[in-house]
Amino acid sequence: MTGPIKPEKHGPKKDMPRQKMKEQDPLERIANFYEVPYGFSEDQALNEAARCLRCKDPKCVAGCPVNVNIPWFMKLVAEGRFLDAAKKIKENSLLPAVCGRVCRQEDQCEKLCLRGKKGKPVSIGNLERFVADYEREYGEIQAPELPKWTGKKIAVVGSGPAGLTAAGDLIKMGHKVTIFEALHEPGGVLMYGIPEFRLPKKIVEAEIEYLAKMGVEIVLNAVIGKLHTVDELLEKGFDAVFVGTGAGLPVFTKIPGENLVGVYSANEYLTRVNLMRAYKFPEYDTPVLRGRKIAVIGGGNTALDSARTAIRLCPEEVTVIYRRSSEEMPARTEEVRHGGEEGVKFMFLTAPVRFIGDRNGRLEAMELVRTELSSPDETGRRRAVPVAGSEFRVEVDIAIIAIGNDVNPLISATTSDISTGRCGTITADPATGMTSKKGVFAGGDIVRGGATVILAMGDGRRAASAIHNYVTGK
Questions:
Q1: 26-138, superfamily in CATH?
Q2: Which pLDDT tens digit goes with each residue over 318-349?
Q3: CA distance 272 to 199
Q4: Judging by beta carbons within 10 Å of its beta carbon (0-12, 13-18, 19+), is residue 90 exposed, middle or buried?
Q5: Mean pLDDT over residues 390-406, rounded?
Q6: According to CATH, what is the number of the domain 153-248+407-471?
Q7: pTM for the complete prediction?
Q8: CA separation for the pair 122, 61 (Å, rounded)
Q9: Gap between the Cα atoms of 419 and 18, Å rounded
């Protein structure tokens, strides 16, 4: 980006090709943690926005969990009104710079784009990122004018995507909002779970600063369930509580050898590297084992984040081991492509059987088994069934388990009258976030289990609206 340009009107251009974002060269980026895509130039943004057909019945909006008015912000971008476009997005989305980078647009708004019926859809996510970055670089980010205080106070537990979104909407409705965050930095999974090269922490910090500028109070190192319970927050004068604590507990494979030195959960591995800045050693003296041959178990974005992080810490070999085929892999296509470009290897239709240690209790190998696909499971994906007699052994000195997350039971265990689901998730009305306990609402991964940033944000928005109606007697 080179600076503000003179606004120029651009109508839809049906023959304009989808713009390709420039990226760091793979050989360069594996030696650093800088962001991989460079972002659109102004000309690219104008050209990409001109591809939007301005549909009378825009399906893309229905595909956005926070209902951003996509055609309208596209029109503003096409006219060169980048700052106005950023403001338009912020009417519905508190975290546009984050969503533009990590949301699965290909499965949501872009999947429903009419241009995609006969070609490639409009690059909605890249344009969202562009205008958010443009505003941060060239605009004076001003907090919106807030209504008079309603006299109501809301507690938000957790500062991940759901909590931040709920807090932003609630303060714009005139309520006083306090966020309680268990960690020493706000941002939740945005800070500890997503690597710097995919989501720079300065981006998250800027979005949170915007929230603070609006007047949201953020209390750090506050573990609700220990420092205060949800019941105590209600007793201390909060009129409602929103729980958005996410799903931060790792899921393990439950196979022999998981307690060996060198076996990490992805949660611990990524937290050490991201939140605790192990990638900046020795500036940050956070220990993390680096190893020579690293195996990552799993096929989602967290697995790819772990593998792409590991390969930047200079091992000889990093391999993602996934029990299904590449077609069933839930990770974003872009992340898989980036991993392959950076030298990550993939071993499909393979599952771990046991971890093997040396005499000192350190991981030195894994026993694996080949799998084949059979009938679909409850998720709709075909089951991975071990092939008898196909076991084999590979040398590994670091293994990272990235097969999912569970919710922390602390809130449900210390809150009276709150119902939970089979996996410990808090039971909440999907339309309102209302739980079984009066005055308590919940959303994001604490309700859904492991899901996406934008789905958590959608939960936060719906819950904020319901909380407003609840505390104002509507």
A1: Alpha-helical ferredoxin (1.10.1060.10)
A2: 999 999 999 999 999 999 999 999 999 999 99
A3: 16
A4: buried
A5: 96
A6: 3.50.50.60
A7: 0.91
A8: 13
A9: 47
